């Protein structure tokens, strides 16, 4: 059974938050919410540059109707399942990355070698593990492995 490769694009992204309402300062120094311009219905054909004249009564009513309890429950369940699926895929992606990158080798070093390794790491601003990996790789190449 082949495992499906998980990528970052498989995870859900939260929608952008709306901006807070602007506030106007009145003459007496108090502030009140700014009046927003009346929302206009979307124009169906604006190719000639003129928006068709429509009224609020021409808008579809489904925007104003609250969804039923069953529809809300279905939507909530679908979102929860999507979040759970994304969480599981992210966990699997992290585990696969860790599995591929970490194969520890315990290597006792004498004091002088360890000090030389630390000094080389500090002077070259490189981790000691990188130096050890490069040294082992070079030895294996020289030995024909």
**Helical segment tally?**
3
Bin the strand percentage. under 5%
Query: Order of SSEs, N→C?
Result: EEHHH
Helix vs. strand class: mainly alpha
Residue-averaged pLDDT, rounded? 77
Rg for CA atoms: 31 Å
> Which residue ranges are poorly predicted, with pLDDT under 50 across at least 5 consecutive positions?
none
End-to-end CA span: 32 Å
Q: Helicity, in percent? A: 40-55%
What can be said about the biggest beta sheet? 2 strands, antiparallel
* Number of extended strands: 2
Strand order of the largest sheet: 1-2
> Quick one: overall form?
elongated
Supply the key terms.
145 residues; elongated
If you had to describe this structure to a student in words, what would you say it looks like?
The structure is a single chain. The chain is mainly α. Helices cover 43% and strands 4% of the residues. It has 3 helices and 2 strands, in the order ββααα. The chain has helices at residues 69-101, 111-124, 128-142, and strands at 23-25, 31-33. A two-stranded antiparallel ribbon has the order 1-2. β1 (23-25) and β2 (31-33) form a beta hairpin.
List the helices and strands and how they pair.
Layout: E1 23-25, E2 31-33, H1 69-101, H2 111-124, H3 128-142
Antiparallel strand pairs: 1-2
